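Below: protein 1.
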Amino acid sequence: MTAGTTSVGIEIDDGGLARVTLRRGEAGNAIDLDLARGLLEAARACTRAAVRAVLLTGEGKSFCVGGDLREFSRLSGEALEKHLMAVTDALHDALRTFAASDAPVVAAVQGAVAGAGIGLAAAADVTLAADDASFTAAYTGIGYSPDAGVSWFLPRLVGPKRALDLLLTNRRIPAAEAAAIGLVSRTVAPDRLSAEAERAAEALRRGPTTAFGATRRLVAAGLTADLGPHLDREAGALAAAAVSDTGREGVAAFLGKRAPDFTRIPPSP
């Protein structure tokens, strides 16, 4: 299946791998209202198709430079407030939709990653960055505050003190530092970024989708849960996984000394 808007493309192959592409490369994939709505439609399409994994990329030199300030500058007052609410409503609904799915998300980022672009990169489960990528929060530099989950993800990934350093100073950090502090999973050579991201997404596509979903939810919940209730949540999730088709296939494969075939088990819609 191939669909999308002029700003966001989505292609879902027969194996259940969804490739979501930001298509405003000439503008650094800056997020305007069309791109935000396109990302939401892509997220919803992934849910409808019950995909097994998502690969998020951006065309051009930069993954995403944040909000489209040229679009925003054409408005003022109440009109600007309403426009920004429309943009962030769509963008945030897209993030919620991806997060609620069982399918893990791989992001491949290059060039400049700023503002909401950091939010998209941070929201992914696995984020690969080209060696020459750079990251800057940018918001307070123009008198704005964060969106796209940046103020939620950054403290959890890099710690609150370091998050405030990045958010208040807007210092630009290279990919190597982003990997060292946990903002991205790892770095790769620029000419290998696409292939490595495809490899990572394909490996996840072949994996136990429902177990991935349960794991994603446990990790997210565990960040704010008390230990006792979280242990109960883990126990319930494990028991449900054990009696599922996915769990039975995994154990049978292990005992039979063969590779499991999770792809024959359809993911939850």
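Below: protein 2.
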Amino acid sequence: MTGTDDTPLLEVRGVGKTFGGVIALRDVSLRVRAGQVGCVLGDNGAGKSTLIKILSGVHAPDTGAYLVDGAPADFGSPRDALERGIATVYQDLAMIPLMSVWRNFFLGSEPVLGRGPLRRFDVALARRTVREELRSMGIDIRDVDQPVGTLSGGERQSVAIARAVHFGARVLILDEPTSALGVKQAGVVLRYIAQARDRGVGVVFITHNPHHAYPIGDRFLVLNRGTSLGEYAKDEITREELTSLMAGGAELEQLAHELSRSEDPPG
């Protein structure tokens, strides 16, 4: 499902960021539309973390423009971004392992009963809401009372995604959600990213793995040492071209030549 308006939910144009004398990001642009997945790829040190912090309101860009719904936006904190529907799920997920699934789901936004000194956590509503929200996204959690720490990595990611969608995320930024997962669990997370996309959420999927990005992505931004190597629609680049671009095709060819065994027998 895509929005009828072609205006991106979120867009950065030519953004740059420096820290002292270090250029962390230079002239990077990205567009995120409703019901689409924009993938940001790059190796360690490529600038992915800096871009995430700009998108999520942690850092303001030094140069370039940040737009929400086509209008300039100036965020002073992640809360400002969240109030505009831009939610970020970091690798650590901001969850407490010993707390139950439903308590983690509502952590900091607990539904309450009563007023004043009689206010109390509406436990029944919280449990019911979490069950319904997870079920609506096709997420199968055996028991919402179980501690989050007993869930698999893919299940924890799915709970974090469902939580963000429930609390009104229009843009969902996912920081390397599949990086520490095996093939099966990574597949689970990709399915839930697709569920969020199909509900009209614009997704920014940060990853270093083109094999995870290509099946789910609609657009691909490749970063290298803080600069953009290009932003491509899916019909403009193949998986092999994306992998080669990200890895540095010429460098890999040179390395393969250096590592190859000589055909000449040892003397």
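The CA atoms of residues 178 and 186 lie 5 Å apart.
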